[in-house]
Amino acid sequence: MKQALDTFEKMDEVRTSQMMYRINTGLEMGIGDEIAVRFRENVSQQQIEAIIHKYGLDMVKTSKIYNLLIVPKGGNALQIANEIQESGLVLFSHPNFVVSAELYQDIPNDTYFSNQFYLHNTSQIFTDGHTGTIDADIDAPEAWTMTKGANSIIIAVIDEGISSDHPDLPNTRQVRLNGSNFADGDPNNPSPTNNQNHGNSSAGIIAATRNNSQGVTGIAPNCRIMPIRIFDSLANGVSSSLVADAIEFAVDNGAQVLSNSWGYSSSNPNYLPVIVQAIQYAVNSGCIVVFAAGNNARHTQGDNGYVSFPSNVNIPGVITVGASDRNDMQSDYSPTSNPGSQNNQIVDITAPSHRAYPPQYYQRFGLVGGIDGETLEVWSIDIFGNTGYNPYPEFIVPGNPDTRSINPSQVGEQLPNVGVNFNAYTGRFGGTSAACPQVAGVAALILSINPDLTTQQVFNIITGAADQVGGYVYTNGRSNELGSGRLNACRAVTQVISTITLISGPSFVCSSGATFEVSNLPDGVSVSWSASPSYYFTTTSGTGSAFLTAWTGGFRKGVGTITATLVTSCDTFNLTKSVWAGTPTAPTAITLLPDDGVCRGPAYYYQVGLLHPYPSYVSSWYWDLQSPGVIIGSRTGSSLKFYYPSGTTPGRYSVAVKAVNPCGDSSYHIEYFDVIDCDRMEMVSFNIYPNPVRDVLNVEITANDAVEINPEAITELRIYDTFLSLKKQLTFSGSTVSVNTGDLP
User: Fold this and answer.
1) Second label for 136, Cα 20 to 30 Å away, from 93, 187, 359, 651?
2) Which CATH number fits domain 510-581: 3.10.450, 2.60.40, 2.160.20, 2.115.10?
3) pTM
4) Residues of 681-690 as b/e, b for ≥16 C-beta within 10 angstroms?
5) 222 with 155: CB under 8 angstroms?
6) CB-side exposure of 96: number of CA atoms within 13 Å?
7) How many degrees, rounded to 5, is the angle at CA 251 between CA 247 and CA 253?
8) Average pLDDT per 10 consecutive residues for the chain, totaling 745 residues
């Protein structure tokens, strides 16, 4: 094999020939003549150039993530990469492996999933022969590799009602409560009437059952839906107070997410204060509140529309959702943000929905607008049977011309018209009404991973994870057309993982080894490890859920970093843990040792300490006192109390201390002092009161009859805390002083 490789390398047209490597999963990794490196931030340009010169490399690419180096003809990229890694100058250095990537996604078997372009857009042909742009979707299959939701998370769909025991949303996955119908009819039955399927379609987008070989797939198919009805059988909304009651009802009955695909034709953010207050209550209670922005724009006519109430309430954390289309462009009807408006005209994020309404939709209002050949094209669930949106009705309320529907290809159209329970599904939903529940569904996925997140944290995650698409101008992360961008479920879920995972393991790495793991790791996440600087650790890289390394030993010891790189279907992030590698370094100084000697006798006791008593790399201390000194109390703390007996021979003595951690002991630090004979007839005493002290400490110096206190003598007073840290220092003359201690911690 080596002979063959050598033969190839001698050919003029061959720059390098290397063996193919195969890991234990069977994945083949080819090596060429390129090396990918990431130099540490503190590495100078001179050091980089020295590396390049040493190995005869050329820098062929520089990005925010890495540098790409090319080795000279005949160079061994693997060997050079390893040597650069061991230099300690890089975060990583490896050959630019040629590997066949896999798509990590979880595709369900639901009959109409291929029509749900908003979840998974492959430029497939769907409704009306339309195709979209590849990946102009929310990356739902990629998110499902990590979570499909949790049964404990409840999304309230406040709308026209939701069918009982729908084939794709059975009652076992609904929270149907008495009192949840705030419109006409049975107050305990939140089911829709007539052709009012709006609530069903919203709920199906959020949580339709997955992998049941029929229908559609919801974004959070393991979560539950709480149906709340606020539109009556004539398709009229209920009073504003009842809407407020409905919101309060949802909050008080345990809904964590409120999906609201409805609004009012007003740009006033305080249009109905009772509803504003109800929304404030929901947010204060920790709920995630999501509103559709409205469908009043006509961009084909230069009309940017407005963000309608209550999606524009001035309440931080409320998520206002606009619509993008199958090509990642702003939908024709979705309003454009106006940051200069006093009415909070801000779209926070968009999600995919239909592109535009047809011209005939506007003609009935005496308006011009829309796009020929476009209409509703979002797939979801429908009222089971011959009502709802399939077959497509002329009127939402039969016989009521005010409820004339948006014509698709024709009235009576059946879409779908084949498949199990086909008339329980529809391909004719859309607007920001279809975008809003997508955000609600992603919020449910987020809370399924970390239910302790605040409203604002969820808002920040969802908007921060959005894809800035469409070619629009994004300033400080926002565009007027799409807000923070188009919703990305996978990236949002990935960001949540970083809030619950951490590296577990010891704070010390000894020669005996240490094992580190990533806690709370969801499915669908792979882990690679690194330990730096490399000269501290026997193993500097690895993969898998656990990582084992050890201290290399010798004189090199110090603070190192264990890094776990987590890779999801759509994103990568790092977790780090700071550790101490090796035995501790020796202490450098002992404080409070008297300069004028240590008096012998038990009446004279002394307390010494350390200049830095609590470094992170020390578990405890160990003190040694030269005989015949007597230690009072513990010898393993950060200070030492001792005395020398009366019979001690005056002379030179020592005290020593060393640091201790799980890896072993440091060397001793030794300091010397003189033991002397003090004249007890000249003793003075101190009277200190009150004890305990609050604001003022009084000190009185008294002496026996053989001693006279000089009233002009200067006395220094020092106050230390229990850690022997100096807190106050002053001098005074005479025999008394009062010290203000009220400013001390």
Assistant:
1) 359
2) 2.60.40
3) 0.77
4) eeeeeeeeee
5) no
6) 15
7) 115
8) 59 69 59 86 93 93 75 89 91 70 55 97 94 97 96 98 97 98 96 95 98 96 98 87 94 98 93 92 98 97 96 98 98 97 97 95 90 95 94 85 75 92 95 98 98 98 98 97 98 94 96 94 91 95 94 94 94 94 93 85 85 86 96 93 94 96 96 85 68 83 59 75 74 84 81
Q: Do the domains spanning 2-95 and 113-495 agree at the CATH topology level?
A: no
* Closest by CA position to 664, among listed 558, 578, 560, 584: 584
Angle between helices 431-449 and 198-207 in degrees, nearest 10: 40
Q: Check if the beta carbon of residue 323 is closer than 8 Å to that of residue 435.
A: yes
Please, which residues have CB within 8 angstroms of residue 648's CB and are 6 or more apart in sequence? 600, 628, 629, 675
Bridge-based pairing state of the strands 606-610 and 590-591: antiparallel
Asked whether 431 and 450 are in contact (CB, 8 A), the reply is: no
Name beta bridge partners: 606.
642
Kindly report the CA angle at 510 between 509 and 515, in degrees rounded to 5?
A: 50
What is the b/e burial string over 452-489, where b = at least 16 CB atoms within 10 angstroms of the residue's CB? ebebebbbebbbebbbbbbebebeeebbbbbbbbbbbb
How many residues in the chain? 745
**What CATH number has the domain spanning 2-95?**
3.30.70.80
No. of H helices and E strands in the chain? 11, 36
Please list the residues that pair with 258 across neighbouring strands.
Answer: 156, 289
In the DSSP assignment, the letter for residue 632 is E
Interacting residues of 448 by C-beta distance below 8 A, sequence separation 6+: 147, 149, 150, 152, 153, 220, 222, 223
CA 105 to chain centre: 21
Cβ–Cβ < 8 Å for 57, 73: no
590-678: what fold?
A: Immunoglobulin-like (2.60.40)
Distance CA 615, CA 597 (A): 29
DSSP code at position 236: -
Write out the two tokens for 158: 């406040």
What dihedral do alpha carbons 5, 11, 14, 15 form, nearest 10°?
Answer: 80
For the chain, give every domain's residue range.
2-95, 113-495, 510-581, 590-678, 682-740
Compute the distance between CA of residue 717 and CA of residue 61 in angstroms, rounded to an integer: 65
Structure tokens at 305: 């529309």
pLDDT of residue 724: 64
